Amino acid sequence: MPGIDIVIVNWNSGNQLRECLRSIGNLVGEAEPLTVTVVDNASCDGSADGLPEPSCPLRVIRNRANLGFGRASNLGAREGSADYLLFLNPDTRLHPGALSIPLGFMESETGRHVGICGVQCLDETGGVARCCARFPTAWRLVGQALGLDRLFPRWIPPHFLGEWPHDSDRDVDQVIGAFFFVRRAVFEQLGGFDERFFVYYEDLDFALRARRAGWGSRYLAGARIFHRGGGVSRQISARRLHYLTHSKLRYARKHFAGIDAFLVSAAVLLLEPLARSAYALGRGRPGEFADTWKAFGGLYASLCRPGENGR
Predict the structure, then answer these.
(1) Hey, how many other C-beta atoms are within 10 angstroms of the C-beta on 168?
(2) Pfam families this protein is in (predicted)?
């Protein structure tokens, strides 16, 4: 049976990491060998201390600084040698079949051209979360920056496939990085995640590069996990927005050329903060208004530093 190396990047996840590891321990028989590598990005809450052994080999890598998701994931991936990699968020819990079903599909004739698998994600209410997305075009990113995807979803579809109930298997553009099941051969062929994305868009970038290399992404509705969503970023919305917009700009500059890259950059830098501010004030959310300008203020400052505008 092909093995799985699970990589979990942790940053101040509290008790969620322990719950995630316990859920993995319940599924040890679904893959052999099975190893878990926790890469801790300089947490200060003790969440990576005294971790429970999940009935399979566990290693913990402690970084002295927060290296970001992509770089930490690549570091964890290099620790193993199994045929498959599973990048897993610490705010997830695996249900029975979450390992065996993707593994069986990837080993089947049907899955031989698939490089990445995702599974059904259940939220805190027990509902099925929308966890698959479409590759963005420049026009969609401009529209989303202005909030037009909420007003005119027929013409400017949102990033996530909200119109589909996620109740059946399907080929998709992208599955979210909370459960990112990848062939190691594909991961190594593409050189892993692009470490220039500190957090956000690294999974989208990887999926696009995989598609261009001839590897598809597949969503499997029969395998399930619980995903809290947002993780610790729920508590730091300004920082989350800063990283999200920074990665969006990097994605546009990497994958779009000429006028398309310019239009996305202009919309994100000049119009998106105004649109977000108007939305926050219209809803009577002064905290969200303040977070918006804190995030974009930090973004403007970071873009003025040498090297930040390169691809």
Answers:
(1) 11
(2) Glycos_transf_2
Q: What's the rounded Cα separation, in Å, for the pair 57 and 5?
A: 10
Helices (H), 78-183: 100-107, 138-145, 148-151
Look up residue 191 and give its two tokens. 């050189």
Level-2 CATH architecture, domain 4-131+166-232: Alpha-Beta Complex (3.90)
Q: What's the pLDDT tens digit per position in 236-283?
A: 489 899 999 999 999 999 999 999 999 999 999 999 999 999 999 999
The model's pTM is 0.94
Question: Which residue, chain included where needed, has tokens 């920056």?
Answer: 145
Q: Under DSSP, is residue 112 helix (H, G, I), strand (E, B) or coil?
A: coil
Cβ(85)–Cβ(204) under 8 Å?
A: no
- Which of 168, 180, 160, 177 lies closest to 115, judged by CA? 180
Q: Tell me, what DSSP letter sits at residue 158?
A: -
Compute the distance between CA of residue 190 and CA of residue 55 in angstroms, rounded to an integer. Answer: 31
DSSP 160: B
Q: Give the pLDDT confidence of 145-198 residue by residue, as tens digits.
A: 999 998 898 899 999 999 999 999 999 999 999 999 999 999 999 999 999 999
How far apart are the C-alpha atoms of 184 and 18, rounded to whole Å? 26
Which tokens sit at 128?
Answer: 């099925």
